[in-house]
């Protein structure tokens, strides 16, 4: 049963008066939908006319006749043009009684693809289509353009004029109809026009929801903060939106799901980084939609959710939304026929005491060793892309072995499951085995005939461990366990010393660019490997950014530690491991390791969260996993799961810190593991979702969203900071203050229990207990950078102060070199457009700079246009002058702004060209290339500079370029011998005038003017001396030359590889 669309109270009042006066039947849902899709004032005028009309026997017919053009001017749902307000069609767009001029524009707009129509409207923020000076013929003229050309045309026609004056976000982001921000006027309590609509996104969004429905059928809605000084409900407008939906063009979007994205972290901005709300397309009033019915047409939102999972079977509302939000995980779909997979349910492995009886937790449920982990057959595992992280493939190269572990989300026949799959070579093909602890939503047999969006989605795979770092919590716990401060300070000092050398040491620079390659898509590493000198301004700037990032990491206690790894955990399938043993599989060379290891899981706070376990070789494990690697196996023996002992962990994809660092193992003394001392969890006693009507359920769910969005308590963050504050003071106290330390320890244990309970509350459907005032500190350590602070003398304070005293150096770009006026003008237009759009995007305070840059790299009009025009050239010869022109334009601006950070654009767009081509200063090229023998001089200069001055062996990557002049001279002698008679015959057959002309031509080709011979000689000597000076300066303080060079060593010609493969080669 569909919910009735509610109209504003004054419209309902007028309707009742019309029913009473004209004795006509109540209007249909379709008419209500039509009225809700236009502004309230316009709808009121329409109903007022119906009330005053002498013969209104059918109000539905009257409404349809007045609003008929709304239905006929727009095409299918996939092409419905969105409005700038995202909620209502403005009065200027629709006239009730006459043919409005915008009707022709709407008709033309409806002929565009949905992506194009949506994009066009994002370029006219704050305006109605009828307020823009544009014709229907112009819009239709853009219909057949490519997306890149369409965006360029719209920008030139509309965006260039309108967007710069607006403070809106009009860049590509999110889904096709992705982002609408809604705000409330405090005095009128009416929904204002949206601040911005952003989109469309040209790449598919990586969630199951978006992949099942399509990006254009999903809206991400951000509800702005409201002023609460009104006596009425401040959220009444938002609740009306949730009930009636949001009109984007002629398509209606309704509230569907929300997700709290701040698990375990301190949330800074709930409107951007916290709770995310999603609306989905449900129906449309466009006549063209009637021929292509939408899958959810005529269905309630509750029925729509059943197509994903039978979430109504869950016992509480908290569970309802927590489990349903699994469809919002960023995943990569495993391309497999779900109907061909055999799904088997196997028992969990229970924990047994010494009497072989089940051990129960504080809530009376059996403790299990296998929480969250199952099995997958080898053939299905091989279909899974390797090295997946948060739904993205980090590498796509072919590998022989399937991933050892796969973190997944599975939706099948009403079921929803999450956890990790362990490769099991013993399983028959096309088989997966799940345990009850992995099943989040069960199937309702009563709805077995309802089709579902079945899919097996991959979140992460067991990847090669990256550079492993400690954390503040881990440093504090290690210090508590006896690790001396000198261990951490030595790591800190070595890291800072290495960081200082990255500006003039290629080995150190390459290492840091690979460590932080995710920040710039390894662009800086490619520049180094391509031979760009370290003193190139943009490269210097990137190295400076990496250096600052590393120092920020160090200040936060993220110290790099050797012989340590983060690995995905699971349970031992063989049952051979003892209670204090683990099996650790690293790369295929070392395989399983042996000896003692430290095991920890972030964000553990308890003193016993760090275990000392014995890494053991298990031969029979190879029968299950073969040669797959990167994982840690925990035993299935003992009264309690080792994973649960370590910060309440499980095996649904959690990463565990594994260290065999000899110094840590030598000094660390473990403590007793954590045992919860809090009473049983208080499960939310709200009504069962199945007991609520569809209208009540939607109201309750949206109220949950409002509470989570506007009134959520950050118990997790406050408990963590309070614990760290007390722990910091605890570490600095001596044994003579034993009583004070004992009191601090009691407080920390209480905070730990509250912290862990708050972490598990969402998935348990439990209420979060507020933090008692006596556990809240008044002041915090200075490294937490709070207003109320004290100067910490613990190891964490020492680390912060030591790093804070080292500041990064700024490197200034040098002056630019002149190039072709044509390319300078062309590239100047590109760059100016980019700068305007980037300034516009950066003006949106809701987004971080890194997110803005990433979006522009992927989908902005400037980047798309640049890539299309730049890389559309025929070959490298044509790309080279454009790259050089863009290089100079960007660097001119960097010099003008006195900011090397502005150099990055050219490397984002033309980086591959600049890294692939060898080029030398333009002034040198213009001088030395003024006559044909210049290639010989250039080759001579290069060979002298490379082999004599710099002491490198000659291994040119362009042998043809270097050796062709010498080949021409060598071949010139036999050419004269073989063709000499022909040349002499030519001279004898022509007169003096022709001979003089040829002599002049040859002379001009060689020298062009007499002084050029001397000039070339001086230039050659100068360039040789310049190379020598550069070599000498590189041994001291780097300068800022403008041009890359050719790789000098074979190391620089290596392809970009992962750290673990590079370490042995650099």
Automatic annotation (TrEMBL):
This is RNA-dependent RNA polymerase. Keywords: Membrane, Nucleotidyltransferase, RNA-binding, RNA-directed RNA polymerase, RNA-mediated gene silencing, Transferase, Transmembrane, Transmembrane helix. Residues 819-918 form the RDRP C-terminal head domain. One of its GO terms (biological process) is siRNA processing. Belongs to the RdRP family. Probably involved in the RNA silencing pathway and required for the generation of small interfering RNAs (siRNAs). GO terms for molecular function: RNA binding; RNA-directed RNA polymerase activity. It is an enzyme of class 2 (transferase). It comes from Brassica carinata. GO terms for cellular component: nuclear RNA-directed RNA polymerase complex. Residues 106-160 form the RDRP helical domain. Its EC number is 2.7.7.48. The chain crosses the membrane at residues 960-978, 985-1006, 1012-1029. The lineage of its organism: Eukaryota, Viridiplantae, Streptophyta, Embryophyta, Tracheophyta. Residues 191-801 form the RDRP core domain. Residues 5-77 form the RDRP3-5 N-terminal domain. It catalyses: RNA(n) + a ribonucleoside 5'-triphosphate = RNA(n+1) + diphosphate.
